[in-house]
Amino acid sequence: MSPKKVAILISGGGSNMVSLAKSMTGDHPGRPCLVLSNVPGAGGLQKAEDMGIATEVVDHRDFKGDREAFETKLISVIDAYEPDAIAMAGFMRILTPTFIGHYAGKMLNIHPSLLPKYKGLHTHQHAIDAGDAEAGCSVHEVTAELDGGPILGQARVPILPEDTADDLAARVLVKEHLLYPAVLVRFLRGETEMLSL
Predict the structure, then answer these.
(1) Which HAMAP family does the record associate with it (predicted)?
(2) Does 141 share its domain with 173?
């Protein structure tokens, strides 16, 4: 059976994209077919090109706040590559139910908290401010509820007494690079039990 095609969406440097793409070799059930960014010149685009992966840019600023028009273009560009799955890897746009519905059951996201805690931004600072003993990251299926879809995997790190948000973010990122590829394999194989690292 030929590998499933995975489109990866980014807005920045693409470190999670790189870990996903590097994992998709050998007997992995997926292969990267596209790296798309909403930011021209995003660092991850060059990394993808260097890895031989097709890249596309759909700049949200070209649509002057018309989210529907932006997403219509996004869908047309992505669908040309016929992906079996979409991996959001630091794609910093909130998507409408129309976009999410178009890829229902096919879309994953990684979020830097132990969901359902701390949806949205500034997750590491929230965890420190709350006095939590641990933090981490979650891979979840994307649904219309922000950071609210079924959780497919989590990885945990301790919060140390002297941690800043940046310290914590750096330790969590190491786990993100392990967790996301592991969950993607299971997702492409149709396995839905939650993975804990």
Answers:
(1) PurN (MF_01930)
(2) yes
How much is the pTM? 0.95
Q: Are 89 and 8 in contact (CB under 8 A)?
A: yes
Q: Is 38 annotated as a binding residue?
A: no
Over residues 123-168, the pLDDT tens digits come to 999 999 999 999 999 999 999 888 899 999 999 999 999 999 999 9
Domain total in the chain: 2
The model's pLDDT over 5-17, given as tens digits with 9 standing for 90+, comes to 999 999 999 999 9
Cis before 158 (ω within 30) = no
Place of tokens 């998709």: 24
Q: Do 132 and 52 share a structural domain?
A: no
Report whether 14 belongs to an annotated binding site.
yes
Quote the Cα angle for 168-15-157, to 5°. 25
Domain hosting 61: range is: 1-104
